Amino acid sequence: MTHDESTAMPSTRLPHRLGPLLKTAAIRLIVPVLLVFLWWLGSRSETNGLFIAPPLEVAQRVISDFLSTDPRHFFLGDVARGDLIPSLWRATLGFWLAVVVGVGLGIALGLQPVLAALFQPLVHLGRSLPTPALIGVFFLLFGTGDWPKVLLIAFGIVWPILFNTIDGVQSIGTARAHVASVFKISSWDVLTRIVLPGAAPKIFAGVRVALSLSLILMIISELQRSKNGLGNLLVANQRNFDYPGFWSVLVALALIGIVLNVLLVQIERRVLAWHRGVTLQHD
Questions:
Q1: CA 12, CA 266: separation in Å to the nearest integer?
Q2: pLDDT tens for each residue of 121-152
């Protein structure tokens, strides 16, 4: 192979690689573009247009409210500093609290059938309680600060993590436990090298569901007795008939959800890279 041929090969392969990528990107953009078009049609209606702000106006409002040109504030606007950051702090704290409790309790209940049978009625009772209806209870028990909101978020999203962890631990089976006992593997090694890796795919599935629910409960927890937060901002904009601001908060929430989901997917792919390799070998 000559030098000219070797240098020409990457350029010939580039179009072949870009083709599928562009096709995939175009397919994924069909639904968002259609939704924006329907949104624009709704804003042009004589009746619904009074409550639906045009997409371009909402985009301008998102930029002006959530972004700034001041590097001292990390290019964040007034709304981002005053409402977005407090909301994300509550959602993040509640999310990680639910992860710790859900995974820890799920491993314990998954490994101990007696504990699972003992706490099963209590767990199903907690799952069946509608979390939004418990806002007043959490405010009564924990006050009106940030902690009742954080605990409400954690309580509402812990269940998918808990049940998926229990299911993942129980799906490992008794064969691996017998092998571990035969080779006299320590309990810590069994937990870190057998139980957690085996249950990790289902744990991450529950975590992804909990992440989406955390944003929903974040808004619900801030609808009452809040001095800041995106939920409080939604109510204020609605009361003031500021519909461009109302829709800008919804758009910001959608963008935040997309970014967080992409980050979690990347983390999941790195952590479960071994799992994809194993499953591909058995396909």
A1: 30
A2: 888 888 899 998 899 899 988 888 899 999 99
Tell me, what's the pLDDT at 18?
75
| 215 touches 230 (CB < 8 A) | no
Place of tokens 């944003």: 215
49 DSSP 8-state letter = G
Distance CA 39, CA 251 (A): 12
Distance CA 110, CA 161 (A): 13
> Which amino acid, 222?
E
- Partnered with residue 67 across adjacent β-strands are 76
**133: number of CA atoms within 13 Å, CB side?**
5
Q: What residue type is assigned to position 182 of the chain?
A: V
How many CA atoms lie within 13 Å of 252's alpha carbon, on the beta-carbon side?
A: 30
Question: What is the rounded distance in angstroms from the CA atom of residue 166 to the CA atom of residue 114?
Answer: 13
What local confidence, expressed as pLDDT, does residue 275 receive?
A: 67
Where the chain has pLDDT below 50, the residues are 8-9, 281-283
Strands of the chain (E only): list them. Answer: none
Cα distance between residue 205 and residue 215, in whole Å: 17
pLDDT tens by residue, 163-212? 999 999 988 766 666 666 676 777 788 888 888 888 999 999 999 999 99
Residue 74 burial (C-beta neighbours within 10 Å; 0-12, 13-18, 19+): exposed
**Cβ neighbours for 275, distance < 8 A, ≥ 6 positions apart:** 197, 200, 201
Locate 37 and state its tokens: 């078009």
